[in-house]
Design a protein that fits this description.
The complex is a heterodimer.
Chain A lengths: L1 H5 L5 H23 L3 H19 L5 H36 L8 H6 L6 H19 L7 H8 L2 H29 L4 H21 L5 H22 L1 H33 L10 H4 L1 H14 L6 H16 L3 H25 L14 H15 L3 H14 L1
Helix pairs in contact in A: 2-3, 2-8, 3-4, 3-8, 4-6, 4-7, 6-8, 6-9, 7-10, 8-10, 8-11, 9-10, 9-15, 10-11, 11-13, 11-14, 11-16, 11-17, 13-15, 13-16, 14-16
Chain B lengths: L6 H22 L3 H26 L2 H29 L11 H25 L7 H18 L3 H23 L4 H29 L14
Helix pairs in contact in B: 1-2, 1-5, 2-3, 2-6, 3-7, 4-5, 5-6, 6-7
The chains are: A mainly alpha, B mainly alpha.
Chain lengths: 394, 222
């Protein structure tokens, strides 16, 4: 951000706005994660939309305003659908738990989930999936995501990808547990498998057509969200474990990548991939950071993403064999398009100069180191924790 | 309908019907200021419906809910929107993407769909207001339609707020309102949202010299 300041793209009050909104955003995310009340969960998600709208439009360029407007309208409508879903859920819960204030408390709902009215729960889950799914970036509703990622400041892209998408997915998961209890036929899981696979395919093919580096990695986020949704849709302890692991790996790796990309675009002054060349010569650290991050996100073996993707794939082969070719095709296309574009960016010829401020390179390598470590060795307490969470998700 | 519907339920049904009518009126309305007035009127009906439900059932938090609607949706938000329209000097005409008669026809189809979807749920409900759930869903869908077919940023926001009205109606009709904390949170979010959008309008106008969202179609996947 300091470099941006000197480039004259930001003024002091804007920087203040950025810092304030950033903290507010963090607060809403934490509130969403810790609250027991599904209503408050909705309120926190909506507040997160509002704060990030201002963050996305921080540069006040026509493109960033357009991105923010699109983001607001799409997510606003989406989140309104989620509210309708929440109302229906409350309606179903009220019949069992009574009109007291605790009919939206998740812990109470889980106890009675098998008594909830199936028809209402089915409708409610559809609304919730579409609503929160807009925020996750599930396929037909993903349009806001690449724009917001490409036009917003880089740290914002990193937290959008690494945090917001995951929290929205977490909201869906919470509701899925309830829907599964009420509808034993696996209705919710099948819906999620469908959405997940479709998202994965769409994102993989869009990946190959991108010219803007941040847009490309935004599509990569959509692709991974699709994969995670698919994993949770399959259900069962193994798939849930893999989904959780992948969620962790993806957020760590993706934020590292966005930081590296941010430095790269600052150095070269453009986001077009054709014009970014030879990062390894301008700044070896950034070059290697981007290269390693890309390898990690594509699921190369020593990194943690490999482990989780492998688990998802093997589980899919065992229980949903028809999905395997689709998964492999999408992952293959994604690999080819991302790797083919990042490689010349890192190793090509260049003429760019050094920047006055040293880039904050620590987060990139710290995140990558954690991902690498988790790929080689997952500490037992983490495994236990994931197992516990996977068991709760059913 | 059977004839034994109590008077209060009839009253609530009447208000809900007026809300639906107003949603259609908003869909057909071309002038920006009238649009905002219609939105305020819709808020007023919503407030009255909630109030009747509160009086009949004696639930205290419904009174608060009605008061909140009155302050926020009838007074504060229309006032903010009025000020915005005047300050931004928006021209009176609202341009619709599709011709208005066509929009109305699509709207009628949407209402039928909404009633069909809501039917199994309202049969389960035991509240006196259950008949209105279909209407609430219809209002949400009409607001959706309005957001899709309108070109000006402000009318999109009015559509968004009207959708919020429909959701509130759904909450009262199906369940006598959400828990108080949640309702407060939703109200706060809506208020903050409109204020942020107000700031946003000025930025959009500075950049594009207009509030027409046709100018904002540059970002595409090539």
């Amino acid at each position: 951000m300091r470099n941006e300041r000197e480039h004259g793209r930001l003024t002091a009050p804007r920087l203040r706005l950025y810092k304030g909104m950033y903290q507010l955003f963090m607060f809403t995310m934490l509130a969403a994660l810790t609250t027991n009340n599904l209503g408050i969960l909705w309120v926190a998600m909506e507040a997160a939309t509002l704060t990030t709208v201002l963050l996305v439009s921080l540069y006040r360029t026509p493109a960033s305003l357009e991105a923010a407007w699109k983001y607001f309208i799409l997510c606003g409508v989406g989140i309104a659908q989620a509210l309708f879903g929440t109302i229906l859920l409350y309606f179903a819960a009220e019949r069992v738990l009574g009109a007291a204030g605790n009919a939206l408390l998740w812990t109470h709902l889980v106890d009675v989930k098998s008594q909830l009215e199936p028809t209402v729960m089915a409708l409610s889950f559809i609304f919730l999936l579409v609503g929160y799914g807009t925020k996750v970036g599930l396929a037909p509703l993903h349009n806001w995501l690449p724009d917001a990622h490409a036009e917003g400041p880089t740290p914002v892209s990193a937290v959008l990808s690494g945090l917001l998408l995951n929290v929205a997915l977490y909201a869906i998961l919470r509701c899925k547990v309830l829907a599964d209890g009420a509808l034993p036929t696996g209705f919710a899981g099948n819906l999620m498998i469908g959405f997940g696979l479709f998202t994965l395919l769409v994102a993989a093919f869009f990946l190959s057509r991108q010219k803007d580096v941040k847009r490309m990695f935004a599509y990569s986020s959509i692709e991974h969200m699709g994969l995670i949704t698919f994993a949770f849709g399959m259900g069962g302890p193994v798939a849930n474990f893999a989904g959780l692991l992948h969620m962790t790996m993806h957020s760590l790796t993706k934020s590292a990548i966005f930081f590296a990309v941010g430095h790269a675009t600052q150095k070269t002054g453009t986001q077009l991939m054709e014009n970014i060349r030879g990062l390894i010569k301008i700044n070896p650290l950034i070059g290697w950071g981007l290269m390693l991050g890309t390898l990690a996100i594509l699921g190369m073996p020593p990194f943690g993403v490999f482990a989780s993707e492998f688990m998802i794939l093997t589980h899919a082969m065992k229980h949903f064999p028809w999905a395997t070719p689709i998964l492999l095709l999408a992952l293959g296309v994604a690999f080819a398009s991302i790797f083919g574009k990042v490689q010349p960016m890192v190793f090509g010829e260049t003429t760019a100069k050094r920047l006055p401020h040293a880039p904050a390179i620590t987060p990139v390598f710290l995140h990558l180191a954690i991902v690498l470590m988790l790929g080689l060795y997952i500490p037992p307490y983490l495994t236990r924790w994931f197992h516990e969470a996977a068991r709760m998700l059913g | 309908m059977n004839s034994a519907i109590p008077f209060s339920a009839q009253l609530i049904n009447l208000f809900a019907a007026v809300i639906l009518l107003l949603a259609f009126a908003m869909l057909a309305q071309r002038r920006m200021l009238t649009l905002i007035n219609l939105f305020a009127l819709q808020g007023l009906c919503l407030c009255l419906a909630t109030l009747v439900a509160a009086v009949t059932t004696g639930q205290v938090h419904l009174y608060y809910s009605a008061g909140l609607t009155l302050v926020l949706k009838v007074l504060l938000l229309p006032w903010i929107l009025h000020r915005l329209v005047r300050k931004l000097n928006v021209k009176g005409e609202v341009e619709a993407l599709i011709k208005i008669p066509t929009t109305m026809l699509v709207g009628i189809v949407l209402v039928m769909i909404a009633f069909n979807v809501a039917l199994p749920i309202s049969e389960l409900s035991q509240t006196i207001t259950r008949g209105t759930l279909g209407i609430a869903l219809a209002v949400v869908m009409l607001a959706f339609l309005m957001m899709i077919t309108r070109q000006k940023a402000i009318s999109q926001v009015v559509g968004f707020l009207s959708m919020e009205n429909g959701l509130f109606l759904a909450a009262t009709s199906a369940t006598y309102g959400m828990p108080m904390v949640v309702e407060l949170g939703i109200a706060l979010d809506v208020l903050v949202g409109v204020i942020i959008l107000g700031v946003f309008f000025f930025q959009i106008r500075d950049q594009f010299d207009s509030l027409d969202i046709r100018h904002m179609e540059k970002l595409k996947d090539n």
